[in-house]
């Protein structure tokens, strides 16, 4: 059985509000969108690992979706579709933040930021498992780098959402 939280403030008293309130979801989506856009921007601002890895993963994941999408008539249409992909990641992050709030997240903007990190971490693991491993020519180093980045993003998201003690307790 999954524990739930009543419509009171978040456990930290940070004013998280009800987890599924439209205002809370909107704030989480905006914060997550800013985090996602910032991590994507690092790809161009600091184009060296490890800073470029999250942005690269977003491009690789979108390129995998391109196979099922209709062809784009222009680069503007491609850019609009990529922006919509990033917006979907932000909305998914907002829903993840709502789940984190019901499970003891620190609340406030932290839930949105941490969920963006967690969603990108999960995306990294999907990219590693779904795109790189099934190919006949598996290169171990890229799979390890992407998997390590995904685990790092997931742990970073957990640390921001629940505090550092949760991550250290889970690793011990």
Q: Which of globular, elongated, flat, extended, rod-shaped describes the shape?
A: globular
The residue ranges in which pLDDT falls below 50 over 5 or more consecutive positions are: 1-15
Major sheet details: none
Helix content: over 70%
Radius of gyration: 17 Å
Order of helices and strands: HHHHHH
> Structural class per helix/strand content?
mainly alpha
Number of helices: 6
Mean pLDDT: 81
Distance between the termini: 25 Å
Number of domains: 1
Strand content: under 5%
Which secondary structure elements does this structure contain, and how are they paired or packed?
Layout: H1 22-45, H2 53-66, H3 75-102, H4 109-132, H5 140-162, H6 164-171
Helix pairs in contact: 1-2, 1-3, 1-4, 2-4, 3-4, 4-5, 5-6
Question: What do you see in this structure?
Answer:
It contains 6 helices and no strands. With 172 residues, the protein is an all-alpha fold. The chain has one domain. The N terminus is likely disordered.
């Amino acid at each position: 059985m999954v524990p739930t939280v009543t419509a009171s403030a978040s456990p930290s008293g940070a004013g998280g509000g009800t987890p599924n309130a439209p205002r809370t979801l909107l704030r989480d989506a905006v914060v997550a969108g800013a985090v996602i856009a910032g991590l994507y921007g690092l790809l161009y601002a600091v184009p060296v690992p490890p800073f470029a890895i999250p942005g690269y993963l977003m491009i690789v994941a979108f390129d995998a979706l391109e196979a099922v999408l209709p062809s784009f008539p222009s680069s503007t249409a491609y850019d609009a579709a990529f922006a919509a992909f990033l917006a979907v990641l932000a909305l998914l992050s907002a829903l993840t933040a709502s789940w984190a709030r019901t499970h003891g997240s620190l609340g406030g903007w932290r839930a949105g930021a941490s969920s963006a990190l967690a969603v990108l971490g999960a995306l990294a693991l999907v990219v590693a498992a779904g795109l790189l491993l099934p190919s006949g020519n598996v290169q171990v180093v890229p799979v390890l780098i992407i998997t390590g980045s995904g685990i790092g993003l997931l742990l970073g998201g957990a640390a921001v959402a629940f505090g550092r003690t949760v991550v250290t307790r889970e690793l011990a």
